[in-house]
Amino acid sequence: MAAAAQSYKLIKKIKDEKFDVEHLHEYSLLIQLGVRDLQIGIVDGQDRLVFFEDYIFHNLNSSDDQLELLKELFEAHHLLTAGFWKKVKFSIKNNKLVQVPSSLFVEDAAPEYLKLNAKFDPKKEVVLYCENIKSNVVTVFAVHKGIHQWISILYENSTVSFIHQSAGLIEGVLRETITDNKPPLFIYIDRFKLHILSVNEGRLIYYNQFSIQHFSDYVKYIMLVLNAMEMDQQNSKIVLWGYIGKNSPHAIEFSKYIKNVSFGSRPRHLKYGYLFDEVQDHHFYDLYSLHLLSN
What we know:
The chain is of the alpha/beta class. The protein has two domains: 2-96 and 120-165, 2-Layer Sandwich (Nucleotidyltransferase, domain 5); 176-263, Nucleotidyltransferase, domain 5 (2-Layer Sandwich). 25% of the residues lie in helices and 33% in strands. It contains eight helices and 15 strands. Strands 1, 2, 3, 4, 5, 9 and 15 form a seven-stranded mixed β-sheet that branches. A five-stranded mixed β-sheet has the order 12-11-10-13-14, with helices on both faces. A hairpin with a 5-residue loop joins strand 7 (125-131) and strand 8. It starts with a helix and ends in a 6-residue tail after the last helix.
């Protein structure tokens, strides 16, 4: 257990005063797993976020290591091994995905779609898919077989949905209110990853994710997408979520290159108690948006 404790660290925890362990059967459990992090959210029957945790991982070299770490973390947790949630939504953060128009999607062909955009190992990974309610898009993605099997068994008495992070982001931005004639570019800054989205009149126009090695990569990729979509650098609106402080050096640096930047707010489909004032509104948008997805 000591070794495991050195491999993950709890960064943030919030427990709402309305959280009641006796009502877990009425709650939805949101789990989002990345290569280097994990977020947990619990939503009650009135769509109120009543519990939140954010972890970072250290010293992981493979998906097998990640699975063993998850088992240790879950076993040490007083809630995560409970098996009687109303719903469990498990989201994976990786680059093994492809978006397919619903009109073209055939379930049996899911692995073939994924091969067009990503490399995966059929011996070690299972290919899954999730549908977006507000768009005619199906996200096909890969998950480590061991993690998929372990989560499925752990929550076999609950309704379990496997989701990709991108599907949550897409569903979230499709529900954003756009009042300008020129839709903004939506950006989510993850740990070592950049997500860029564009929607117009309720339709997904663009989605892509980029791996980040240096801060300059953020600006480079944003400018690349702006140019590709023929959006003006000076006048186009950018709505920003993610791991960046409003007054941080990175935010100040952004403003040098991209003039019309605003920080996004929390999704309106959830309610948040006063304890969540500790978390900046533009953080964890991807986790919160998982609750919008029904499958």
